[in-house]
Amino acid sequence: MQVAHAVGRWLLAAGCVLAVAACLAALPNATAHVALPVALASQPVTFQIEPSGLWLMGFGLAPAAFACWLGSPLAQRSGKWQAGAALSLLGALGVFGLQDGMSLLVAWEAMSLGGALMLAGEDAQSTGGRSVLLMLSLLEVGAVALVFAIVLLDRVTGGVGFDVFAARAPHASTAAIWLAGVALLVGFGAKLGLVPFYEWFPRAYSSGSGASGAVFSGVVLNAAYYALSHSWNAWLGIGMHGNAAFGLGILALATGVSSAVLAILYAFQQDDWRTLLSYSSAENASVSVAMLGATQLFRSSGLDDLAGLAWTVALLHLAGHSLAKGALFLVADGVRASTARYDIIPRGWLRTSGFMLGLGAVFAAMSLASVPPQAGFVSEWYVFQSVFQGFHLPSFTGRLVLVLAGAGLALAAAVALATFVKLLGLGLLGIPDVGYVQPIPRRFAVAAGTLGLGVLAVAVGAPLWLDALAGGAQALFHANSPQAMVSGWLLVPLTDKFAFISPSKLVIAMPLLALVPLAMLALAKRYPVRRAPVWFGGTADTDHDAMTTPLTFSNAMRTFYSFVYLPVTSTEREHEQREYFIKRLVFSHGVTDLFERHLFQPIVRSVTSCAGKLRALQSGNLNFYLALIGGLLVAILALTLI
């Protein structure tokens, strides 16, 4: 059985590697248009992946390959995880390449079912499967919205093929395009973690392993964003519906920015690797959705170059995010392999687990915190440069929305920096417990280090990589925005007269800056350094006891944003035989999930109440059933006569 599981992992990993190689070989062009030998309801099924789909799929599959190679540490001997991973990856491939609405829905549901199967094969028993059911229920809300959007587009265009949508949607009414666009945002946003759907992220991710998180935050999230971006920019004929584009742009910006701020605020409060990283995934997806909104605003005003800029920035952002998040999820599995838990606690792993682990973890955390010269810094810089271009919009409302969006994204970026300082400082540094010397296994360090180097390569090689998206931008916007974002080795927002950076040159300059602290270390060897213990209330405690904890690190933010967090604390007392003698105090703390408390729980209570009242229909009384059938017959006859 172990041999079979190992062979399954290797086959999945090899498939991911081959798919990445195929993406690299096909770019910067799309794949060939292939007619598959199947049909759905007489609709021929065809397959083709656009350059932007190849870009997102390739970067998403890179961490998935390592996740499949390492496998899930929670799956034990169950083959469910491998079957779920295979089904999820296959569904994502369909989302990237299938060319009609009906087959897309099948692939979308396969991707959801595969994710649920992955989690069911891991630790679903500890929660009774509630986290998986919550995920599926919210994703099905999105699926219903997708069905509505595709049926509506079929109604107004006369077909379900994407080519039919693109050809005939420009002649549809603006109201229909607006309604379809909102439904698509809800449908695909359910997997992207937009409000209120992001609340399934921490529950589902924390019931699984880091390997599942790497697949979710890489391939699945990228597939969902590609579907949303492609549907808005290609299906809806948005260039011919300026009012719809403007309204959808404002909606996407408001939804994306609010989702990003809420998700990263909740990420900062987490003490579990998986839940913190899951909220961060929702935040990064929301930033990309905000850029999609900016794309629509620019497009509504005929600013196709700026629309192509914002569209490209979102793809660049998700590329770096996939690699960085995959690296940290695999580090989380390494932490679990060392401690049997996913808690963020100081263990000093960067000192005991080798160079590759430190390289990958630091580079990934720097990128997600938008610290130069990593990929996250490049994409965040481009995000703000895109927002700053709002003064080109002729509408005051559009300019105001982009200014407010910039403020919200700045807040999200600042909290993200603090979040990954917490994760790196408290999760990988610190003073380990006395006698604790178990390092993170080397295989996790190698995987994280390789992905971390990939994060740096995305930033340093951006002047080369961006050309891969030129064909997609030209097809959608008739603009060469990706090529205009490069000037030699400089990255510019379409013109070097506005702003510029060069990560390629920063890689050379920053090591030179390291000479300053090295010189200070050399001076420290010549002059004695006086060391004093940390002040700890005047008591002579050890350095380990005086360390900052995750609670104290995040408490100030929790207090300041208490109107968002609505923090809850409780203290339980365990007594000896009499209540006068306290055996133990148990202190617990947490934050309130806004949408679960104010949206999901009321819905669940109402459904439960209705179910209780309708339970009378299952009384088992034959006379009642006969009366019910008689009433239905009378109603049918009455309707027939009318």
TrEMBL record:
Domain NADH:quinone oxidoreductase/Mrp antiporter transmembrane: 102-390
Ranges in a coiled coil: none
The entry's keywords: Cell membrane, Membrane, Oxidoreductase, Signal, Transmembrane, Transmembrane helix
Alphabetical list of InterPro entries matching this protein: ComplexI-like_HydComp, ND/Mrp_TM
Entries under Pfam families matching the protein: Proton_antipo_M
Topology term for the membrane: Multi-pass membrane protein
TM segment ranges: 52-69, 81-98, 132-153, 173-198, 210-228, 248-268, 310-332, 353-371, 400-424, 444-466, 506-524, 622-641
Keyword Cell membrane among record annotations: yes
Signal peptide: 1-32
Name used for this protein in its record: Hydrogenase 4 subunit B
Compartments reported by the entry: Cell membrane; Membrane
Keyword Oxidoreductase recorded: yes
Organism superkingdom: Bacteria
GO CC field: plasma membrane
One MF annotation (Gene Ontology) recorded for this entry: oxidoreductase activity
